[in-house]
Structure formats: structure tokens, C-alpha cells
Design goal:
28% helix; binds flavin mononucleotide; alpha/beta; binds iron/sulfur cluster; eight-stranded parallel barrel; globular
């Protein structure tokens, strides 16, 4: 059976599934139940400075978007960091760590961007026996207006400076949690590395307004007639998170920097995808909030079964394996030619593929044959875009099939070479480079 044990920057946990810093990890009661359910680790809900805690709104703090079946796809919140007393949180972290020595317990921290503030809190956290710290440079609402969270994460110089303080004043491993609210995620990641971080984690939430109440004429969630932007997460955020993880994993300047992947992870497959792109483990928030702590059971068994099927014995066997296949557009093979194929036995003749292709793609799907409703791809028009695959309501009814070398692409009349050729050497590219002749 696959070995799911995880070692992330020296922090060991029985599996790679950690709960992200958020309401599920807000207090001892939750974390105790999460560990009983099987979570490998938790990142405690972000701690703030000693003194009066922050105050949350007393009205709705969540917004959401749903798929047609009311499955929650995107989730938005205007919650701040913990609104519980620092000392109480520290006592609970200590108690949890003592009871669960085999699980990872990480303390997330956000204090003002001043050396003394970090210097003051780090020894208090270290004293709890926590395995590491995560620096919350990501929260995009409320705290960022006070010069913390994303306000730090968006300035690489601040990221580097704070990481450096944490490395200087603490012996614990430092995980720097990045905000996705930047144009190039590699810049804060490089800064964190330059500051000496042990790892980065990403993504925190994306700045967003999920909906507008058209009666109140105000963004939702609405507090007494007003709303504000909040942090977006959940399954809809996963593609953005995957891309950012992949960018850091393949960037020369951060190559090998451990990454904890976060963003929309709901199933074992989501987790495997993050890890295949280079994440050393994963963190989950929304899925636990929607389905409860026990979803980790499915994640553990699903990942374990898949690893057995594929012959992966340990997590390291597949971590980063997809990273080498992430490339820039210009290196994609322009000689790879596919056509859509409709399985007539599966087709329910709804016509959605025809409409999509006819109105917005390449007019390559006929809707009638011998006076009957019939949907079939015309190879002489099909560019292989796969729009029809994505709109067809029947799974696997339309598939993309590669044309074998030597066959003719009826659309262009060209013979399929089966060779690799990309845009860098393409005759239509005004910037093309001369193909280098192989040495004799
Ligand atoms: C209600 C809520 C509160 C959150 N609070 C924090 C926080 O205190 N500190 C932090 O680093 N991230 C916080 N997050 C962000 C999550 O840790 C996580 O990065 C984000 O939700 C993406 O993961 P997900 O798609 O699995 O939810 C919060 C998220 C939610 C939904
Ligand atoms: S792959 Fe694109 S062009 Fe070809 S039939 Fe489907 S939608 Fe039309
Ligand atoms: S969308 Fe799918 S099911 Fe509907 S007509 Fe096209 S192939 Fe058939």
C-alpha cells in the first residue's frame, strides 16, 4: 500500500492533507475533531498581536456562487484574522501539539510590518511547541487596509524584509503564504526565497465581489446596506492556484523551493494535481467548510488507491512530475493535429455541439444527414479546438483524436509529419529563429 507520509521542510505528518488557516482551525475544539477525522496537519487561524483582538462584522461574512445543482463553486469571505485572545490561542496550540505529536501544527501569524512586532510574537509562538510558522501575507480585505496581509505580500521588498526578521528571531521553519492579488507571482516568491524562507504556500484568497443584491443595490454579503470586496476561494479558484504553483515550481530562481499548494482542493485528485505540479503537500479550507472534516477520509483513500494503481510508493515518486511538462506557448508542437470525433451510440442529438461550433467556432459539425437529425464532424473544417467536447452534456461522447503521421489533414491539405515544430521556427513568425542544423 502507498506510503502517504509527508515531510515538508522537516515537518512530518502522516499524510499530505493539512487544513489551511481559516475557521476550521480557529480553536482547539475544531482542531481536535479535525485530527480525529484524520487530517495530517493544521495551519492555525492567523494570530495577531497581543492586546485587544480584531473585531469581525456581526452580519453575513460569506458570499458564494453555485453550479446549477447548487454545488458551491466559489466562496468569498470578509472575515479577519482570529478575533480570539492571543494567549488563549497559544495555550490551545500547545495543548493540541502535546496531544497530537505526530500531526503538523503550524501557527499562522500576521502582525504589523515592524521589526518589534515580529520580534515580540515569534518567541511566544515557539514556546507552544508548534512545528513551524506561516506568514500571512495574503489576506486581501480588512487587514490589508491596515497595512498587513496582502499589503505586505504585494511588495516584494516587504516580503523579503519580514521573512528575514522571522528567520533571525525564530528557529522554526518559515512558510511564506503568498497573495494571488499580484501580476506576477514569481516576484514575491523570489523575494521570500531571498529573505531565507523555508517554503512558500499559495494561494490565499483572490480579491472579489461575488454578487450584487439588485434590490439593495449593494454587494453581497451586505452589512446594513453596504458591502466590500472579500477573498475568493473554493473550486473556482483552483485553476488560478495551479497556475501560480506551476510558475514558482518551474522558475529558475525558485527552483526546488518547497511549496504548499492551496486553492479549491476538494478531492484527492485536486491534491494529486497540485503535487504533480510541484507542491510538496496541500492545504484545504473551503471543502472542509462545505463538507466537514470527514472528507479527508476520501482524500486519503483516493490518493492511496491511485498511487497503488500507478505504482507510486511514496509521495516523492510523483511530486513535481507534471512540472517538466509546463512550457511556454511558443514551444507547443504546431504539428500535433487533432480532430473531434462524435460517438454516435452515445450522442443524444441535443445539438449543443453544432450550435457552439456553428456560431462561435469553425462551422465543422453538421446537424442533418439524409433528412434526419445527425451530428457529425467535418474534418475539412475542424481545427481541433475542443469547444464541442466541453459543451457536450454527455461525458466521452466527443473525443479528440490525433491524426497519425502520413495521413492528410483535410482542412489544410497537408500531410501530417509527426515531427515536432513550434512557433520559434515557424515561417509565419516574423521573429523566427533559424533552425540549428544538427552537428555532423
Ligand atoms: C472564511 C475564511 C477565512 C480565512 N482566514 C484566513 C486566515 O485567517 N489566514 C490565512 O492565511 N488564510 C485565511 N483564509 C484563506 C485560506 O486559508 C485559503 O488560503 C483559501 O481559502 C484558499 O483555499 P480553499 O480554496 O481551499 O478555501 C481564509 C479563508 C476563508 C474562506
Ligand atoms: S473541435 Fe472545434 S472546430 Fe472541431 S468540431 Fe469541435 S468545436 Fe468545431
Ligand atoms: S453535444 Fe454531444 S450529445 Fe449533443 S448532439 Fe453534440 S455530440 Fe450529441
Amino acid at each position: 500500500m502507498a506510503d502517504l507520509r509527508n515531510n515538508f521542510v522537516g515537518i512530518k505528518s502522516p499524510n499530505p492533507f493539512w487544513l489551511a488557516s481559516a475557521p476550521p482551525t480557529d480553536k482547539e475544539y475544531n482542531v481536535e475533531r479535525a485530527f480525529r477525522a484524520g487530517w495530517g496537519g493544521v495551519v492555525w487561524k492567523t494570530l495577531g498581536e497581543e492586546g485587544p483582538p480584531v473585531v469581525n462584522v456581526n452580519g453575513p461574512r460569506y458570499g458564494a456562487i453555485w453550479a446549477g445543482d447548487r454545488r458551491l463553486m466559489g466562496f468569498n469571505n470578509i472575515e479577519l484574522i482570529t478575533d480570539r485572545d492571543l494567549q488563549r490561542n497559544l495555550r490551545e496550540i500547545k495543548a493540541i501539539k502535546m496531544r497530537w505529536p505526530d500531526r503538523a501544527v503550524i501557527a499562522s501569524i500576521m502582525v504589523p510590518c515592524e521589526e518589534n512586532s515580529w520580534k515580540a510574537i515569534l518567541p511566544l509562538v515557539e514556546e507552544t511547541g508548534a512545528d513551524g510558522i506561516e506568514l500571512n501575507f495574503g489576506c486581501p480585505h480588512g487587514m490589508s487596509e491596515r497595512g498587513m496581509g496582502a499589503a505586505v505580500g504585494q511588495v516584494p521588498e516587504y516580503v523579503e524584509m519580514v521573512v528575514r526578521w522571522c528567520k533571525q528571531y525564530s528557529r522554526l521553519p518559515v512558510i511564506t503564504k503568498l497573495t494571488p492579488n499580484v501580476t506576477d507571482i514569481r516576484r514575491p516568491a523570489r523575494a521570500a526565497k531571498n529573505g531565507g524562507t523555508d517554503a512558500v504556500s499559495l494561494i490565499n484568497t483572490i480579491n472579489s465581489i461575488t454578487n450584487v443584491d439588485l434590490d439593495l443595490m449593494a454587494p453581497m454579503p451586505t452589512i446594513d446596506g453596504k458591502g466590500t470586496h472579500g477573498g475568493y476561494c473554493g473550486p473556482a479558484a483552483k485553476p488560478i492556484a495551479l497556475h501560480m504553483v506551476a510558475e514558482i515550481a518551474r522558475d529558475r530562481e525558485t527552483l526546488g523551493l518547497p511549496i504548499s499548494g492551496i486553492g479549491g482542493i476538494t478531492t484527492w485528485r485536486d491534491a494529486a494535481e497540485f503535487m504533480a505540479l510541484g507542491a510538496g503537500n496541500v492545504q484545504v479550507c473551503t471543502a472542509a467548510m462545505v463538507y466537514g472534516f470527514k472528507i479527508v477520509e476520501e482524500m486519503i483513500s483516493g490518493l492511496s488507491n491511485w498511487m497503488d494503481e500507478k505504482g507510486y510508493r511514496t509521495l516523492d515518486d510523483f511530486t513535481g512530475k507534471a512540472s517538466r511538462n509546463v512550457t511556454d506557448w511558443q514551444y507547443l508542437n504546431l504539428e500535433y493535429i487533432t480532430k473531434a470525433r462524435i460517438d454516435q451510440d452515445l450522442c443524444i442529438k441535443c445539438g449543443r455541439c453544432h450550435i457552439a461550433c456553428e456560431d462561435t467556432s469553425h462551422q465543422a459539425i453538421m446537424k442533418e444527414k439524409d433528412g434526419r437529425r445527425h451530428f457529425e464532424v467535418m474534418d475539412n473544417e475542424c481545427v481541433g479546438c475542443n469547444l464541442c467536447v466541453n459543451v457536450c452534456p454527455v461525458e466521452d461522447c466527443i473525443t479528440m483524436v490525433e491524426l497519425p503521421p502520413g495521413s492528410i489533414d483535410e482542412r489544410t491539405g497537408r500531410v501530417v509529419t509527426g515531427k515536432y515544430a513550434n512557433w520559434t521556427t515557424h515561417p509565419n513568425n516574423p521573429m523566427r529563429k533559424q533552425a540549428v542544423e544538427p552537428a555532423e
